[in-house]
From TrEMBL:
It comes from the Bacteria. It holds the Pfam family DUF4403. InterPro entries: DUF4403. This is DUF4403 family protein.
Amino acid sequence: MEMHRTTIQKVFILTAILALLVAGVFAVLKTYERYRITPPVEVANAITVEVPDSRFQIPVIIDLDLLERYINTKLTGTFLTKTIFTGKSKKDEVQVRLSRTDPLSITSNGKELTCTFPLEVDATLVDMRLGKIFAGLFRPLHTSIVIQLSTPVDIDKNWNLVTRFRITGYTWKKKPLLHIGPFRKDMTTTFNRLIEEKGRKLTAMLDREIHKEVSLYATVADVWKDLQEPIIIKKKQPKAWLNFECTTLDASITLDKHAIICTTGINARMRILTDSVTANIIHPLPVLQKNHTAQSDLRSKISLYARSSFKDINEQLQQLLEGKTFSREGHHITIRKIRAYGSVNGLTVDIVTDKAFEGHLFMSGKPEYDTTTKKIIIRNFDYDLTSGSLLARAGDDLLHQKIRDEIATKLTLNLDSLISSIPDIGQRAISKSKAGKSIDMSIGELDIEACSFLIGRDNVHALIDATTELSIRIKQIKTGKAITITDG
């Protein structure tokens, strides 16, 4: 009887234990079902990114002192010797010589150029109706005159500078008089007529010589060509090149106090190419389009594109984080596997740790560019709701935050290096025109003003809006032969 009671008790205890085990397993299964992690849905399709047009604003500057030196070299010494006949009978023969010894000067009022042109005037009476002997008694005349010239400035379709000089006035330093004792012969009217007559030839030749020698074609064509030259950005197969496909250009001429400024605008679109043949196609310089709109903002606004593949991102993440153990106050977690991918939640990271109850953990966030720090951040980067619930049950939130922050830092390394390389690539694209004897090219720092990210199946794409200031200063104008005004 006693033995039977003992057997019943053992059966009861075993049954109770079994019931507790079943209840425990059921509870675990219910908990697992409750906290089962569903990965954020991966982006299924690759995306095509349209890069907006860039607008390169390039002021090409011709300093007025350079134009001064050019004209002073072009017009130097004696450039007119002429015999004229005066008097009512036209028998008074005077030999006149015009020469420039003092430098001319050029100024600007913002609308036109003004040229102050000093001339030395020498005249000798060589014959007259009273005979050559009597004419020889007159002292040779020496005086000077300052001629004022003005011109608007424009540019033609072939990138040659266009001027239309005209005489706007002249001032005699000393009245032109031929003397013989108390007798004087006033040459003012005669010389004024000569200045007006030959002045038209002078201004026409100035216009012609400036138009012939002051050309911006080679300078602009070099920039146009250099923007289209491919820059290799990936040397491993499949290779990739970057270039700008130039479409249109325009120009406008303005004057400031010290320079002629031809603001050249080039519209272009950045491309990434994998075909070396296409990459080396250079479009010729098109016909110039005049831009009559005042350019108040001379900054170049450049739209750039970059991308980083998830293959590259994951190689870096795995190299830096797989096998790494995080510890805090006796708690340890080791990352076994890690993988980043594009999801409906943005940029998602799948982490497998050594904690069996945790399994896969997922964090998601959206990459953004911080214009203040010039760094990429992952906005709202955190564990998804279910991963967070499991970690909360495991305890030690600070350790899990440490893991999250470390992953966020490593996740942006590849993107940061990608974005930081953009200014260098951009400058390389626009700075291939080397400074030399003829030009100086100034390139300001490329400033990234905004950056947006698009996440596809295979890549993280970045669209970058950047600005910079460019300018080209002409250093040399070929002078050629000096101008001589022929008689006749």
